[in-house]
Amino acid sequence: MLASGSNRTLDIITSMKYLIINADDLGYSQGINDGIIETHSKGIVTSTSLMVIGKAAKHGATLAKKHQQLGLGLHFQIEDEDLSLLRGIKNAASIAQIGKIKKEFLRQVEIFQEMTGKLPDHIDGHHHAHRLLRIYQYVKSYSKKNDIPLRGDINFIRSFFGKPNINNVSTKKLKDIF
């Protein structure tokens, strides 16, 4: 047994890896909300990201409140129904558009707080909206100022992702990654 003050104990603790299994899109629909809560209840999903302007956002926030062990972040959205706004911003965002998006980000943080009673425990974006070049620095600065982790430098493993081949998602495939 190691003494609690030993350097070896500290080395072990600081070298530990944590697997966060985050389910995006809480608030998109009631079915997605129920699926996220079911997989969390079964010990799979450890975190989720709430789309505060999603069709089922209130339902999702209510479910999240009942599951306090479930990490809950903001899933920032900027697209409209047909994704034309997102495509336009990726191609050539005007100063006016960027200003509107910054205001929209703050509005969604405020809605998150109203729905959940707290700040998000992380921030990410629908279709990686928070990673857009002219928005990322703003969101990153906000996150740092408020001590909220910004998910962005993720290890996206396409071979494990469930679309378009759901057969790629299995315990064996997950173990093979590590």
Short account of what is shown:
By secondary structure, the protein is an alpha/beta fold.
Tags for this model:
single chain, 178 residues, alpha/beta, TIM Barrel, 4-stranded parallel beta sheet, 4 strands, globular
Number of helices: 7
Sheet with the most strands, sense and barrel status:
4 strands, parallel
Find the count of extended strands (DSSP E, 2+ residues): 4
The general outline is: globular
Q: Round the Cα radius of gyration to an integer and report it.
A: 18 Å
Strand pairing plus helix content: what structural class?
alpha/beta
As for the number of domains, it is: 1
The CATH C-level name is Alpha Beta
> Which architecture does the CATH hierarchy give at level 2?
Alpha-Beta Barrel
CATH H-level superfamily title: Glycoside hydrolase/deacetylase
Helix content: 40-55%
User: How much is the average pLDDT?
Assistant: 79
What can you tell me about this protein's structure?
- There is one protein chain.
- The chain has 178 residues and is of the alpha/beta class.
- The chain has a single domain, classed as Glycoside hydrolase/deacetylase (TIM Barrel), CATH 3.20.20.370.
- The protein has seven helices and four strands, in the order H-E-H-E-H-E-H-H-E-H-H.
- A four-stranded parallel β-sheet has the order 1-2-3-4.
- Helix 5 runs parallel beside helix 6.
- The longest helix is centred in the middle third of the chain and has 22 residues.
- It is globular, with a radius of gyration of 18 Å.
Helix-strand layout with pairing:
Layout: H1 7-14, E1 22-26, H2 30-41, E2 47-50, H3 57-66, E3 71-76, H4 84-92, H5 95-116, E4 123-125, H6 133-145, H7 171-177
Helix pairs in contact: 2-3, 5-6
